[in-house]
Amino acid sequence: MEFKRVVVTGLGTINPIGNNIEEYWNNLKNGVSGASPITRFDASNCKTRFACEVKNWDPLEHFERKEARKYDPYAQFALVSAKQAILDSQIDLETINKDRVGVIWGAGIGGLQTFEEEIMSLKVENPKTTPFFIPKMIANIASGCISIEYGFRGPNLTTVTACASSANALIDAMYYIRMGKADVIVSGGSEAAVSLAGVTGFNSMRAISTRNDDPKTASRPFDKDRDGFVMAEGGAALILEEYEHAVKRGAKIYAEVVGGALTADGYHMTAPDPEGGGASLVMKLALEDAGIQTTDIDYINVHGTSTGLGDIAEPKAIIKTFGEHANKLSISSTKSMTGHLLGAAGAAESIAAIMAINNSLVPPTINQFELDPEVDPNLDFTFNKAKEKEINYALSNTFGFGGHNATIIFKKFK
Length: 414
Known about the structure:
Elements: E1 6-14, H1 21-29, E2 36-37, E3 50-51, H2 65-68, H3 73-89, E4 101-106, H4 112-121, H5 133-137, H6 141-150, E5 156-159, H7 165-178, E6 184-191, H8 196-204, E7 234-242, H9 243-248, E8 255-264, H10 277-290, E9 299-301, H11 310-322, E10 330-332, H12 335-338, H13 345-359, E11 361-362, E12 387-388, E13 393-400, E14 404-412
Parallel strand pairs: 4-5, 4-6, 9-10, 9-13
Antiparallel strand pairs: 1-7, 1-8, 2-3, 6-7, 8-14, 11-12, 13-14
Helix pairs in contact: 3-6, 7-13, 10-11
């Protein structure tokens, strides 16, 4: 079977450092942090009192009041970012065959805020919830809502692989188009877990930073004094399209999706394989899927969460995978600016990789003060300042609790 080519023809996002693609990229390249004190709820009694929230967010600017009440914030972020991407792609919604347009979305948690609100108000003696409780909460509802909004009747599903969810969704979308099962797929992810339950839960695991004195420097991947990731929220969407279909309608093409892979660590519920075995395997398989060599990769947008174990394991995996070429790669963790968008991270970081390709610019890893001595100092992490560089191939890594690993590779479209 001859696989079809897959290209990216639309982008959209709403995240802590940008409510659209232009704003997102400008802040990425300028090293702007999205961390600030939490406003979503009263966090005064929490160990962590800051997060990377979406700024200037008013759902009533995007939805009618009655409609907004039907959606958890994670679904609102999904609909807004998907709308941006669809508009950016300039797909003619009147003439396109909607039977051949799908939605494959990623969410690690889903409607956590709705779940929290309903459970906290539930009374044993008179148990009642709103009729929207279940449909607002379930993780798959965002992909359903996007398809309903536009009448898309193609493949529709949601991937739930923790922080690898939206990268997983993009890879699945690539496979469906390759195999001729769809012409266009709206893919990406969204998350809205900045809530009392979300912050407290990650605090209990000692997974998130408690650097309340200076939130903007809290996400510091690979730094000796890092103390956990910074919670974030938002959504990111990409339009993946079959190449001939895109060319026929005269679409602009941002990049080609040439490879992807999924693996498991098979090691621990939350900790990564300390030697980066699963991470190395997923990168090798993605390179094989793309039909390219390690020396073809110019830039890696790493998972780089600012956690103690993860930031040591991933560089080991890169060295294990790329050998001598590892020292010639440009690497950066954009989570140093956006925080960790959990299930939406893979899509947001894929957009960062695509924009890096199109602008020949590697975004920085900010908040680097002193490199962890366990991290190889010969790797180029693009610390603190963006760097101009011709990028033909960019690779994006996303890993999740449960040992889920996802790698996707983009190629400059020529």
